[in-house]
Design brief:
Blueprint: E1 6-9, H1 12-24, H2 31-50, E2 66-71, E3 76-81, H3 88-96, H4 103-109, H5 114-123, E4 135-143, E5 152-157, E6 162-168, E7 174-181, H6 191-201, E8 209-212, E9 220-222, H7 239-250, E10 258-264, E11 270-276, E12 293-297, E13 300-306, E14 318-323, H8 332-337, H9 339-362, H10 364-379, H11 381-384, H12 389-392, E15 399-400, H13 412-417, E16 425-430, H14 434-438, H15 444-448, E17 454-456, H16 461-465, E18 470-471, E19 474-478, H17 492-504, H18 506-516, E20 523-525, E21 534-537, H19 545-553, E22 564-567, H20 572-579, H21 584-602, H22 608-627
Parallel strand pairs: 2-8, 12-14, 16-17, 16-19, 20-22
Antiparallel strand pairs: 1-6, 2-3, 3-7, 4-5, 4-7, 5-6, 8-9, 10-11, 11-14, 12-13, 15-17, 18-19, 21-22
Helix pairs in contact: 9-10, 21-22
């Protein structure tokens, strides 16, 4: 017996989403069917899993499926399942609100581009509301598998900002979603049209999607293959089927870049199907967000987002793993302690990295697209997964002085292949961005000698490069730290010039050190500079200013670090400084050169007002000389 109907208001985010559905996605209306069938499949999967520990939930109806019924005359379309079902409380919670976490990012990603918006709908997990693209009224009738018939629920809305809920008598287990189609959406009450859409979007669903046979009123037939795609031989699966299955498990409307389908036999038996997405999800940088593979045991769905099978830095990989050996009652806690899972994790991680290496080798353009979306995440693996560091290094991409622009398209193998004869170091420099790194004074001599330098412009790069030692027998060298280590690249003439510069400038170096005091560790002639008068150099073990600021912003005390000032003793300004007598003018110019070098080093000054005063004083003297 039904209870009085209650009316509730939708959450503000749901109202905003429904308006988007109704008014912005007209040209991609068919996505509603894909999303509702996918939800029905998930409900069946959940019931099958719970029935492992409580077989009574199936109540003699173990044949799980999805049914589609139409009434062209009434203009209705019904999608029903016999899965886990909803309670009254769940209907209110799940059909009236969406999770607050990530909603701002979701709506921020909506661009007004219909194709892109349509892709995001399912990815965000709000596919149910796609029903309102084609329906002006939606009714949901449901009963949980563990509830009596008297505990059924009816949910109804006209997308007018409110929904109603009432308790009803419902004998069938599961959920029926009844769409009262808009006048201009009556095409979706046509059986032939629906069959073609099911085959296009949901052929891979592991449960039969049944529709009435033509000419029969009570006889149904499956209109999809209804077989776990990953369990079929690869030779029988088309690329279109692989892409459709990816869209089903990822709720991503874009095609994947590449995939790998493998069956492992022997000591451990399992099948994996891994996909590399072409675009980053909105929550990629939320490290605590749900991630991982769909886990099945002998074709039985166990859990979504089984994060134990891939490391965190591969959280963008989507796919399925189906084990023949794990117990059906496996839990997340057991997965964390199982040696077999650890072995599978190691193998799946290698498989994912091999997939990336294949893409990088076979299609540089596609790999560049991947790197732009996911490169920063992949870098995390250099620290988190030292066992696979040698597999990760060839996958890294950099901007470089070899190329113009900021495109990160240079691999370490590319760099090594172009190294000068006698070069033993892979030189790199880190800046606030690629342009800052390209303009760094620390690489002026390297560029003048035609030596390629990798340009790193990401805030994580200093941390990343601290995790790697060498590649292909060549050690990495930060061009802004310690000695430049030119080795065989510097000949005897270079050595003679360095010794002469040191001898000739000893007096100047001491005077500058006295003027700058504890601000610098020492002052020395530079082997780095060609055009700039000065730069600051830190020891190889010192922390950079940018990293110090990051620590301080998080309330951590940074270790002390005092840089060395290097002077280009052939530069006109430095020669002018050398010609000044001891006194205020010398000290002011020495401080000005130090401040310029500090700006290049960290982008910040200890006392900006003092720097401005010194610079203005120098300009006034110059103007006075010009006027005289």
């Amino acid at each position: 017996m039904s209870t009085p109907r209650e009316t509730h208001g939708f959450q503000a985010e749901v109202r905003q989403l429904m308006q988007l559905m109704i008014h912005s996605l007209y040209s991609h209306r068919e996505i509603f069917l894909r999303e509702l069938i996918s939800n029905a499949s998930d409900a069946n999967d959940k019931l099958r899993f719970l029935a492992l520990s409580d077989p009574a939930l199936l109540a003699g109806e173990s044949d799980l499926g999805i049914w589609i019924d139409t009434d062209a005359k009434a203009g209705t379309l019904t999608i029903r399942d016999n899965g886990i079902g909803l309670s009254r409380e769940e209907a209110i919670a799940h059909l009236g609100t969406i999770a607050k976490s990530g909603t701002a990012e979701f709506f921020g990603r909506l661009s007004g581009d219909q194709q892109r918006d349509a892709q995001l709908i399912g990815q965000f997990g709000v596919g149910f509301y796609a029903a309102f693209i084609v329906a002006d009224r939606v009714v949901v009738e449901s009963r949980r598998a563990d509830a009596p018939a008297a505990a059924g629920v009816r949910w109804e809305s006209r997308a007018d900002g409110e929904f109603s809920v009432e308790t009803i008598e419902r004998v069938p287990r599961g959920t029926s979603v009844i769409l009262h189609l808009k006048e201009d959406a009556r095409e979706f009450a046509d059986a032939w049209r629906l069959r073609s859409l099911v085959r296009r979007y949901s052929d891979h669903i592991a449960f039969p999607v049944r529709m009435q046979k033509e000419g029969a009123t009570l006889e149904y037939e499956a209109v999809n293959q209804a077989q776990a795609l990953w369990a079929r031989p690869k030779s029988e699966i088309s690329d279109d089927e692989y892409r459709a299955f990816y869209r089903h498990i990822s709720h991503d409307g874009a095609d994947p870049l590449i995939w790998a389908h493998n069956r492992v036999e022997g000591k451990r038996e399992y099948t994996s199907l891994l996909y590399l997405p072409s675009q980053a999800p909105f929550d990629l940088w939320q490290r605590e967000a749900a991630r991982g593979l769909k886990l099945y045991v002998r074709r039985v769905f166990i859990m979504d987002n089984a994060e134990q099978f891939l490391p965190l830095y591969l959280r963008f990989i989507k796919g399925v793993v189906d084990s023949s050996d794990l117990p059906l009652n496996v839990s997340r806690e057991l997965l964390q302690q199982d040696e077999q899972v650890e072995a599978m994790r190691a193998a799946l991680t290698r498989r994912a990295l091999e997939l990336l290496a294949k893409l990088a080798t076979d299609d540089a353009a596609k790999y560049a697209a991947f790197w732009k979306q996911f490169g920063r995440v992949l870098k995390e693996g250099l620290s988190e997964d030292p066992a696979n560091r040698e597999r990760l290094l060839p996958l890294l991409r950099y901007a470089s002085t070899h190329n113009e622009g900021d495109a990160e398209d240079v691999s370490l193998a590319d760099y090594v292949a172009r190294m000068k004869t006698g070069q033993e170091r892979i030189y790199y420099v880190i800046g606030e961005n690629h342009a800052a790194a390209r303009g760094s004074p620390h690489i002026e001599q390297l560029r003048a000698r035609g030596i390629e330098v990798l340009l790193l412009g990401d805030r994580v790069d200093e941390w990343v490069m601290g995790q790697v030692g060498e590649f292909s027998g060549k050690r990495f060298k930060d061009a802004a730290r310690g000695e430049l280590e030119l080795g065989a690249l510097a000949d005897a003439a270079d050595q003679d010039r360095s010794e002469a510069a040191l001898k000739e400038s000893k007096g100047l170096l001491k005077r500058c050190k006295d003027a700058l005091g504890e601000r610098v560790r020492e002052v020395r002639p530079s082997t780095r500079l060609a055009d700039s008068p000065a730069c600051l150099v830190r020891d190889d073990t010192d922390m950079s200013e940018s990293m110090r600021r990051v620590l301080q912003a998080h309330g951590q005390e940074a270790p002390p670090s005092v840089p060395t000032l290097e002077l280009n003793v052939t530069h006109p300004l430095v020669k002018y400084l050398d010609g000044l007598p001891p006194g205020e003018s010398f000290d002011e110019l020495a401080r000005l050169l130090y401040d310029q070098a500090r700006l290049n080093d960290s982008g910040q000054l200890e006392q900006p007002a003092e720097f401005t005063r010194r610079l203005n004083g120098l300009l006034l003297r110059f103007v006075g000389q010009q006027g005289g």
